[in-house]
Structures are given as structure tokens and as C-alpha cells.
Structures
1.
Amino acid sequence: MLTSIAISNFAIVESLELEFKKGMTVISGETGAGKSIMVDALSLCLGDRTDAAVVRHGEKRADISASFDIQQYPHVHKWLEERDLEHDQHCILRRVISKEGRSKAYINGRPCTLSDLKEVGSQLVDIHGQHEHQSLLKKNAQRQQLDAYGQLTDLSKKVNQQYTVWRQLKEELSAQQNRSSEQNAKIQLLAYQAQEFQQLDLQKGEIEALENEQAFLSNIADSQFKAYQASGILIDSDEGNVCSLLHQAINSANQINPTTKELENALEMMNTALIQAQEAADSLHHYQDTLEQNPERLTEVEQRLSDIYETARKHRTLPETLLILRESVETELNSLQGSEESLESLKEKEEQAYENLTALATTLTEKRITAKDDLAQKVEEQVHGLGMPHARFFIQCQPLNQVTANGFEDIEYMIASNPGQPAQPLRKVASGGELSRISLGIQVVTAHTSIIPTLVFDEVDVGISGGIAEVVGRMLRSVGKRGQVFCVTHLAQVAAQGNQHLRVSKLVADEATSSQVALLKDQERTHEIARLLGGLELTEQTLAHAREMLGNVQLQ
């Protein structure tokens, strides 16, 4: 629950520190004194958006902090612990707004995001504003309230999340199905190309080897002639060959006298040259023997090259890049064929997602039907006590043709104010007073079932007076018994029901205006109740009435 709040330079508040207890705390004051300033400041600590206008004129920044005792609320403690923000059994929320409009947020002294502040704040405080009935006219708000009452919010979120999953799968499936005809044509083309490449079965380095072999086979005859010619020059020619000439040179040199070292070297080199010439001639003879014209093989090589060149031309690429193209075609084909398989898998996922969605939505419908009847009965009882004894309150669950993000039904609050009148949507209720009372009855009922420790009612009693106002006060006091209730009011009958009473007043000094808040005791409280009853001029009659009202509350 909220244990204290400190406000500095916020709106017309210069400095304010307040401590709070359990039960019902009443906040009253003259019009314009700033009764709702504390509520507005608390809203900022809970993550509401703001601007520089909230900073007190002439000051650099506004600073607001609220301290909560969370000993009895383990879910809040767990939330803080998961984010390493725990601090004993307390949760301190702080908000600082600069005059430039910049905002900083803190949880237990550590900087945090506004979304974190809002998330933890929603678990600590629930604020019911004086215009709450306006939002309750919207079916979306009515559905959310029914789900909150029946503790179905988490289930409703699961339905919404599952609906999103299903819709995404359905849209993806539809998109793939629309692409399937073009995809099939593409698969057929790629499959034909892949088969063509497979039949060609080109190997790495094959083109270069075939071109070399073609050049060799095409030049065998010329090679044979030139080998014969070379061997003839070396040894076979009758007209003088290298070997016979070397023999002659060696014989002539052997006849030279005297023999010298240089001559011996010359003879040695000539003998070596003769041997090498003879060996070269033998190699050429052997080479000639290996050469054999093979027109069949030449035809095969040329046909193979022709097939390769034709395939490259057909695909508008170079022969050297055919292997890369084949790999690309096969990769794309496998991908598309895999997507065909994934289309079936996607269809199964979509069907499973829809089955999960309908199962969750069906469970939500069943629980909503139970919750709506219970909520409607309790709201109707409260409305009867608020001066509408013949009113009938219903919650309509209109089945839809298909499941939506919010389930299988359309939720709407229905009211029949008088006997014999048909029930009509709450949004069509003509009387503002009736609408205000119905809205208050709904808020009081839902507050009783709330797990949020602190509830704030900001002038929700507008349009209510007399005996009905006393009923409203008793309602709020009973809600306060289970935790903590704050009520900003202008009605004495409501204010008298409070366990503690705060009065807001406006002070003008040195041409500056500020709001002050005081905790009222005994006589001060009697005077404030009397003021609410009869205005600024207090009479003994209004004071006596005020004392009576406070005394009656003590006797309850």
C-alpha cells in the first residue's frame, strides 16, 4: 500500500510530504485549491506522460516520489527481484521533470524506463477518475473490465497473442500459395536445366584437357614428318648426317700430333656429342613409333567439345563458367523444392495455430459467461442501492461468426433502468446521473475483487447527492477495509466515511500561489464536514449535523 508521498515544485505545490494508513483516506477542499494535484502527482509516479507545464513557475524541476509497503504483495516483490530492483519490503517510485520537459524515472533509487515504471505502478495503484464512465461506454473497456473482474486478463492476452501468431501464419501461407503457380513454372525450368547439366556431366579441368587432346590429334601427321626429318638429319640421311660428320671429325682429330690437353678435351666433347646425337635419334624413332593417327578419337573429342560449347551458348555463358552455373541452378532448385515442402509444413503449423487459438478462445468464452453473470448480479445490487431500485443490469456476450483477437464474442454492458423497458447498451443511457451511478456501482464491485493494494477514486461521486451520497461513502469505506482507498470528494456524506481526512487549501503570499494539505483531527474535521454541508459560513446547525454524521460513522 502507499505509505508516503513527497511532492516538490509540482504545479502549485511548493513542498509537500504526507504519510498514509490503511483504510479510506478522504481528500476535500475548496474549488480550485488543487484537490486532484496529489492524484495527478501520483499518476506521474505511476508512469503517466507529462510535459514542462507541471513544473512550478520559476523552478528548475518538479520532483515526486511515492513509497509503497509491499510485504503482503509477493507478486510485486517478485517483479522487482527479477529486475534486481528489490529493496527490503518497500518499493519507491520517483519521477523528476525538468522545466525543459525532460523526464527521469527511478525505482528504488535506480534509473528505469517509463514502461517499467508504468508496469510496476499498475500492480500498486488503480486510479478511477471522475470521467471513468466515459471510457466505460466503450465496448473495448467493458470487455477488459469483465476480464479483469474474472481474473481472465492473462488468458485474454494469450488469446490475443495466439491470434497474432495464427494471422501471421495464415498471411504467410496465403502469400506462398499465391506464389506457387509462378514457382512451379520456375521449378520446371530449373529441373530441365539441372537434368541437362547432369547429362553433360562436365568435369573440372575437362575443357582444357579436351582442347589439348584435340590439338595433339589434329597434328599427328605433321609431327610424324618432322620427327622423321629430324632423325634423318641426325643419323639416317645418306647425304650426310650429324653422326657421320661427327665420325669424320673424330677420325681427323685422332690423326693430329702431338696430342695436347686441348685436343683431348675436344675429342671427348665430340665423342659425347656423337653419343647424344645417336640417343636423340633413337628417341625420335621411338616417338615416331608411338604416333598413330586416330580419327575416331579425334571425332569423339571434337563432338564432346561441340556439346560443351553448345550448352554454354544456350545458357549465354562462357564454357569455363558452366560448372558454376550448374551449382547455382541446383542450389536454387533445391531451395524451391524445399519451399514446396515448407508450404506443407506451414499449412500444418497454421492449422495447429488455429486449433490452439480456438481452444483458448473457447475456454475464455466459458469463463467469461460465468464471470459476466456474477459481475452483472453484483453491479445490479449496487445500482439498486444507488437509487435505481428497478434497474436491471446485463452483460451481453454476442457470439461472432469467427474468432477474433478478443475471442469468440462481442462484450457489451446492457441496462434497463425502469420496469417494462427493454435493455439497451449502456452507451445509450440518456441520463448523466444514471450513468454516473451505474459507473460507480461497477467501479465499486470491481474494486472489491482487485488484487491492487491502493485504489484511488477521483471525484467519482459527481452528480450524486443526499442519501445516495451516504451509500457511496459506505461503499468506498467497505472497499477500504480490504486495503487502501483514496477518495477526492466534495460531498460531506462521502467525506464523513473516511478513516482519515486530508484538506487541501490554497495560500497566496508574496504574489505566489501554493497548495497546502493538512491532516484533519476532531474539531477541524467537524468544521470541514460542516463546510461541505453548508458553505463557508458555519452555523451551529451545520456543525451539529457534521458531528452527527461523524458520530454515526463511528457507530457503524
Note: The chain has a mean pLDDT of 86.
2.
Amino acid sequence: MGRRRLLALAAGGLVLAGAGGLVALHRAGEGPDGAATPYSREVVDRNGRLLRPFQTDDDMWRFPGAVAEVDPLFLKMLTAFEDRRFAHHPGVDPLALVRATGQWLRQGRIVSGGSTLSMQVARLIDKREDGRSLSVKLREIARAVRLERELGKPRMLDLYLSLAPYGGNVEGIRAASLAYFGKEPRRLSPGEAALLVAIPQSPEARRPDRHPEAARRARDRVLERMLLAGVLKPEQVASGKAERVPVARRPMPTFAWHAANEAIAAEPARRVHRMAFDRTAQEALETLLRDRVRAQGARLSGALIAIDHRSGEVIARIGAADPLDTERQGAVDMTRAVRSPGSTLKPFIYAMAYEAGLAHPETLIEDRPSRFGTYAPANFDRGYQGTVPTRVALQMSLNVPAVALLEAVGPQRFFSRLEQAGIRPQLPRGEVPGLAVGLGGVGLRLADLAALYAGLARGGEMPALVERLGAPQMAGRPVTDEAAAWHVGDILTEAPAPDAAITGRLAYKTGTSYGFRDAWAVGFDGRRTIAVWVGRPDGSSVPGITGRTAAAPILFDAFARLGAPAAMPPRPSSAPALTHAQLPAPLRRFGPSREEATDTRDLKIAFPPDGVRVDLGALRGAMDPLVVHTKGGRPPFTVLLDGRPAGRFGAQRQVNVQPDGPGFTTLSVVDGEGRSASVTVRVE
């Protein structure tokens, strides 16, 4: 029998065997497209860009491939190198099969399988089939023919792009492009495309992160073949060979760490979770927050929420400055943590007072030592401004006027209004809302504050915040009326900006919780609302931290990174411009005069509290000063550390002293009339 005749009979036998295998597969009822193959779950942004993927249950990085999402150059190179007649054969290439059969007859074993891309897909789907035996090859042929007939060429190519091995736990071109180049495979250079063509032929031996030289040689062979095939020009081959081969795998994207975890936990069966976030904004703000918080000191963390208050969509949410930093407790999502909001609720006290007709921005109010029953609030700097318009009182964040307005509004009514707006403020068990609520004596989440300020920006109507697209949302509720919201926004626009920032572009407010535990800054322009928190997740004190110095600069830079500020809404007709002289007589001055607090009894050390640990960096070598605050007594005051004079101060009631080193320290203060108070703290 002639050689040609022998080759033809052998080839025909392979095809006939393939037909028998096809019948067997149908009888077995196997799925045709690998539907059982698990793919990585993805959290994507509003535009479908990847925020964070998750490994499959078998610890693989594997994504569904799609021809439309891959660089056309790669597809040309792939078919030219692996299967030149892919577009024309029925799943098996007869010419390649004849060649492989001839090699088998001459050598007595399978030398090359003549595998088409479709046959490779058949093998990848059934990973139990391994080896180069004739029976394995026959099953590949049968399955490839069947898959081609049932799925068609585009879907077959999609499956190859999904399942091709790229070394280790990386499968499919998308996972490989992310792992080796840190980008999606939509646009690949000639060198990148050639490397991704070469690796699946021998994925472990050609892994660039372990065998970069072998990977380079394989890539260069693909480039040379593409030149001979007319797919690439000489200059493309030269540039491809000059490209550097990656020597390490890139980490998969990990944007919106905490929000992504929440989305997966809420719907674990869903493969793709589409968020309202914008990846560009999320990435820029994560970088900003991480860099700024790191520069402010050890153990600090930060959180940020950015909202498009027109639509209610959350543009970005960052739960920690660095989710992987255990020293900063990055695993704690501080956008959901309940903390004292400091002075950030004051604008809503003023809004309710304006809404109720108790005051107007031009109404005069007293800022002087005052008592409200047994409660005697004082300003942060221990100074007083006298008689000022409520506009100025809010801009300067004066405490006494805010408490006076809250007393008139009613703490319970104020608390209930927050609840009606959809916020859940928290009080210690058994307590009822009191005047301290207005100065931070309540627990709120950063997400709550962001929603409240978004409500101000929307004319008093709370937005229905949208994080996960497609999830059911609650309708927005009012927090104040349009006129009051506009007045408060107008006042906050003129609040003094941080150093190097421009006043007048944002309406914003800062806050600092008692004991220097939390620093806040929340603000809005005509389109976006952003809220920032800085502090320690464990609630420990950070001496000297304030909203103005720690959080406000981040807030202003966050707006800058999102683009030019949007114009504020115009003055509504319900909020006419009035001078003080044009106000009705009852609105020209707020409330009766109050009993002036002498503030000379019961000298106390307000900070640091007795028995606390104060982290001044002593254990790290560069110790910060200790901030001392007093309450009561009569100035001047003398501070003693372990019985030794350490400083003197007057009516400002604050001074910085320098402990000798780490360990327990007794801090004492003596006032001008000889009264004294002492606390013992542990300096670290």
C-alpha cells in the first residue's frame, strides 16, 4: 500500500473514531461549554471597570473571556501561531491531522497532536483528560467537533480566552494580562501579545515570574513567526523584542476593599457586582487618603465618602487609609464605625432654628460664659466673642450659641428629626438626648454625616444613597426646609478655609471629638458631597489632632482631585436677602440674657483623663508634647509633672508640656487661688 494511501486511511480512522466519541458524549449528557467552570467574582464600577476580583473556590484567578474585549492584534497572532485554518475547519484541521498521523506512523508514537484551538478548548474543559495517548486525542477530536457545531467559532474562541493556562493559579488571557502587565487585555503591545500567545504552550516552564529567560525566548520565537506570517512588520518585531519581560506578578486590583467585601457578602451567588463607584475617583482618593494619613503619624487611619448628591450615587467609599496595614487596624471599616461627630452637627441645629423662625443668619446672639442648668459649655479655645450674628457664630463654630439654639429647638426634637431623616444617632444605654448632643455627645457614622450634608446640598431633602446598582433603595426624606438649607450652606461657604486653600468654593464644617479622638471634615459644592474622618480605630486619643488641621486639608484636596468645583445653587425665593435692620424685631436678637458662668469653682483637668494611656511616640524615639486642658479654677495656672514645675498658662486653659519619657506620670495643675487637681497617665 502506498504511503499516501496509508496516511489517508489513518486520518479517516481518526475522524470516524471522533464520530463514535461524539455519540458517547451525547449519551453521557455532558455540558458542551464548561458551564460548571467557576469564574472569579468581580466587583466593578459604574462603567464596568474592575475594582476588586476574588479568587474562585479552587483558588484560581479565572475570568470569562470575550473576543470583543481583547486586542485584535493578539487574536491575529494567536490564530496565526496556533491554528492558521481556525476560521475554516469544523473543529479539526484535516491537514494538521494528516501530518500528525504520518508522524505517528513513522515514529510509532504521537509526536504532535495537530491540535486546533477547538481541540485545546475540549481538553481544557475536561481537565481530567491528560496525556498524549490515542484515546485521549480521539476524545478531544470528538468533543471539538461537537463544540464547534453547537457553539460556533466566536464562542469557541471565547472559551479558549477564558481557560488557557498561564502558570500557577492564573487562567485565561484577562487574568494573565492583569497578573503580568497590571492592565486589561484590550490594548496590548506586540511584545505583550506575543508573550501571552507563547505561555499556554508550556505554562509552568514559561512563567515570566519564575522563568523570565525562557519566557523571553518563547516570546521572541512567536514574534519571528509573526513576521514570516505577515502579521507583524519588522519594526513591530524589533520593538516587541526590546520590551522588558515582567519578572513578577502584579497584585490584582483591590479598590473599594470594604465595600467590595460587603457586596460579596450581601449576594454571594452573584458573579459580577456593579457598584455606583467611579474607579478613577476611587483610585485617586484612596491614594490621597493613604498618603496624607501616613504623613500624620503612626497608628492613624482615615475614611472618606464621596457622593454625587444630585443622583444620590456614592462616587467613592474608603473604609481605611490602608486596609492591609494591621498597625493602623485597616480591616476596620471606619465609614460604618459609630464615633462622636464633634461639632459637625451644629449646622443642623442652626437649620432647625432658622426653619422654626427662632433665628435668622443676621440675628444677634451672645457668646459669653453661660450656664444651661448644670451644663456650662465653653469654646474650644476657651475664649469668647461677645455679641455676634448667628452667621458668624456658625462660621466660627462657637459652642455657647449652638447650645443656646439647641435648647430653644429642643434636644429631643432635634434628635427625632435626625431619626426621621433616616439617620440612626446612638446614645449610651439609658440616656435621653440632652444639650451635649449638639457638641458631639452622640454616636454617628461617617456615612450618616455624608448623607446629612448631602441633604443640605439638595435643599434639605436627604438623598437615597446608591452604592450597589440594581439594589432596592429607600426614598429620600427631608432634614430641613429649602430656605434653612440654603442659608446654612451659604454660611458654611464663607467658613475660613485651611491654610493654602481658597475660601468660598466649598460649604464645609469641621469637628473634633472630646479627648482628641476623632477629626472630621464634611463639605459640598454644587454637585458633590465629601466626608472625611481621621483618627485611631481603637478610639484612643491623638493629642493635638483637630478636624481643621487633620481632616479639612484632605477634604479640600479630595474636591480638587475630582475636578473643578460645581457652582452652588442660586438663592431660592423662600430665602430673601435681609440685613439685620430689616429683620422683624423678635428676630434681631436671640433669647434673654443668661446667667454668666463664673467658672472659678471645681478645678479639673479636662484632658488627659485620669488613668488613660497617651501615645506620644515615646517608644518610637521622637516624643510629642502632651496637651493639657483645664476646666474651672481661676488663672493663672501652673502645671507640674511628678511634682516638678513644667509650665504656666492663663485664660486660654491649654498648654503643651514635655514628659521626661515613657511610663506613668502624675500631672498636677494649681490655679491662682491655690486649688489643685491631679491625674495619673501612662505615657507611651
Note: The mean pLDDT is 86.
3.
Amino acid sequence: MAKMTVARAMVEVLKSEGVEIIFGIPGAAIYPFYDALYDSNIKHVLVRTEQAAVHEASGYARTTGKVGVCVATSGPGATNLITGIATAYMDSVPIVAITGQVNSSLIGKDVFQEVDITGATAPFTKHNYLVKDPKKIVRILKEAFYIASTGRRGPVLIDVPIDVQMQEIEFEIPKEIDIPGYKPKEKGHPLQIKRAVEAIESSKRPVVCSGGGVIASGASEELRILVEKQKIPVISTLMGIGCIPTDHPYYLGMIGSHGQREANLALRQADLLIVIGARLADRALGDTKITDNMKIIHIDIDPAEIGKNVDTNIPIVGDAKQVLSEINKRISERKDFWAHEIKAQRKVLPDDDKLHPYDVLREISRAYNGDYIITTDVGQHQIWAAHNLYIKEPGTFITSGGLGTMGYGVPAAIGAKFGRPEKEVISITGDGSFQMLLQELATIKREQVPVKIVLFNNTRLGMVYELQKKRCTGRFIATCLDGNPNFMILAKAYGIESMRLESKEKLKEAIEIMKSHNGPFLLEVVTSPDEPTIP
């Protein structure tokens, strides 16, 4: 066994886990780790705020299937991670966050830049650690990666006091990780699977509701086989977009309060709802009520989610890929697609001389033919993107679903581009969300990350503005962004090429210019404040 500092041991464990890139900002309480990182081949991306580090790690994790890693110092460095960690937790993204902490002998004395980050993040991490014993660091790091990447994925935080980082230990990596009490169940119960098959085959109007769990488990092909064999219409949550191609004949769209009419209509008419990897929270259901006449099959790897929001007749705890594979072995073929009349009612959007957001998004779809990774922020543009972009591959529509975090899109695009550099990465954002973390333009410039940013500028916090217009009789307060900067000049200040689009006649030209540009590019789209979320 080799002798080394805890800081160096941390780096060696990261290397053993296949970590190639981490996102973060150094500080006094984490400097021993950074010093050890200097001698490794792990790439470090210097962000401009710690929240962005988690979002970038998230974008990387969601495009690669690997664990994303971010690092921060103690105090405000650690607390700045909180929103990003909560975002990852709500969307089940595997993250390992490493924070420095003050000297272990000073913990609890309110010294400079001390904060109880393990206590603060306990409600929205899968697990977290305060490392007190230097000898346990290797096991803790290995456990963190195992916990983050298995079962229902999620973030794990490790807080390491500076004096612990500097101590020497005997370095040895354990051959296997065995955590008492943590045994994620991946195989569904055979009897429950048998009951599910019988329920599907006996139903007349079955509907599949696909969530982010289908994409996380890599179960898209198994889902496609099931729905094509049984000719079942598919509706998705926001996180489930991309579970099957959005142009698939059986895909009806996103459900919920901002969902497509035909998707919600199918849900109301179904006699059997097959929920896969979704929790069906309030925004997903909207005002749709689950009736007593509807039977529900709920498949999820997290038993806590089954029955939490809707009563379930046939619960199946297990990995979506494995469970669907077993169902497909036993399921027969159905002759007719019952929802063809619903799909035929799809609304035709207005085609006029005005430049609408859906025109821009559909032109992007046409120009790229779905060969991209899309990230979005949160707001009206998120819903426009969900409804109008062509998504043909799972894991290529990346957004903040559960927490609804403004500022997520651009950092996530940076992480996604590092994860899959061969893919074109386009971030769809709004002027409100963009200004939450616009300083990441500096990261794009420094690292020369060739992401494309489509910025819808309506000089409003659009979603809330629309809400005030509808429900507050136009009593607008704190939603007008009259102080917006000149985004073209801002982009130029960061060395990023840009273009402003104000008319429909220039639309195709603008998208082609953005597409052909070899490097980062910002396309500002001027949009009416009165453009509705759903036309």
C-alpha cells in the first residue's frame, strides 16, 4: 500500500471511477485537493459561480450517463451549490459534490467561512458525509459514486475539513462496495409483472405515461417495443420528453398544466394508465383527475414514489428497462390504435407574418433534423421548446423539471458539450433565465465551448407576466425587465458571435448562420410580451 495525503487519495479515487472532468471554483478550504489535482490528467473547468458548477456537472451526467463531479470551498462556496444540488435531486441526476470545510477542530465555532453544509443539504441529497476520519476517505468516495449512480440516481455530497485533506493515509481501494441497508431493487416481482400483462391485454384504452426514469434507465427501446406491440398511445412528463421520438405515430405529447391538449385528452379517456419512471406531481397532472374507473400500473425503481401522488392498483418496484423487458416477453399483439381520433385533433398553429417562438423552434428542428442536444431554462420558452422541438433521441432534451430552476440551461449546455463534444448543443433560454447565470459566458469563452444559445427576449418574466395577465386582471408587478442589456454588445464583450432576429423573413437565414458558425453563438429572438405559452 502506498502512503499519500487524503487530498491525493481523493484524486486517485476519482481517476479510478473514470472521472475525466470536474467543474468548480477553488478556495482556501479546498486548496490541498486542488494542489493534488494539478498533477492529474483530470480536466478542471473553472466556472464563475458554484451553482453553475452543479448545473454543468448535471448536463454532463445527463448526456453521458456517468456521474458528474463538482467542487467548491467552504462557507459561501458550499452554500452556492445548494440550488444546483436540489435541482439534481428533484430530477434524479447522479452528482458527487465535494466541498472543503474549515479545520475539524474549529467546526461548530462559527469561524470564518464555516457552514454546516451536510445539515443544510440533508433533505435533498441521497446521502452526504462529513469526513472526520482520514482513513475512511477512500471508502466514502467509492460509496458516494455507488450511491449516486444506482437505484434512483441523485446527488451525494462529501464535506472534507482542510486538516483532514492534508493528513497522510495508507492508500488502498476496496474491491467492492457493500452498504448495509442500501440494496436497490432492479428486478420487478414476477407476480406483479404477470398482473400488469393481464391488465394491459384486457384494457380497451391503455395509455403509457413516460417519465425521466425511462430515459435514466436506458429503457427507450423496451418502451418502443411495448407500445408498438400493443399499439398504446404514449404521453410524457416534461422529463420524459425524448423517451421515444416526438414524431412517433403513437406519441401524443406532454401532459399537464402546460401540456398538449391531445395528451391530456387521452389521459382523461384512458381505462388503464401505465406510469413508468414518473411521480405524477401536480404540474404533470394539471387539472386532470384520475377517476375510479381508471386502473393504474406504476413502475418505478423508487418505492417511495409509487402511490405517493396517485393511488396504484398494480405497483412494480424495479428498473424500468428490466421490468419492461419482462413485460415484453409475455405481452401479445393488439390490432388497433384506439387514440387515432384524438391525435387527428392536433391543433394547427397560426401561420402569419409575425415571428412566433414556435416558428423559430420548428425551423431549428428542420435545419438540424433532431441531430442536437437541447437544454432549456425555465419559463415560457421551456414550454415552447417542449411542444415544438423535434426530439429523436433519449437524453437529448435536458431541462429542469422538478425544481424549475431558472439559470439552468446555459451551464447545462456547457456540461453537455463536454460530455458529448461530437453533438451540436443548443441552449434555449429567455431573457429572465439567461440573466440568472449569464456570467457563464466567461466559461464558454475561456474554454472555447462551441454551444449555441437561442435567447427569446420579450423584456418580461414571461410565465409570471402571463399569469398576472390572466388571473390578476393585468395588475403587473415586478415582471417587466426594462433594464435588459444590449445582448449583442454583451456577447461581443465575451468574444461570442451573435445575431438579432426580429422578423420572420430572416428566420431561415438566421438559423443557417447559427448552424454554420464554428464556435459559440448567441441568437437573440425578439418576441412579443403577449405571446402566450400555449397558443
Note: Residues 99 and 159 are 5 Å apart (CA to CA).
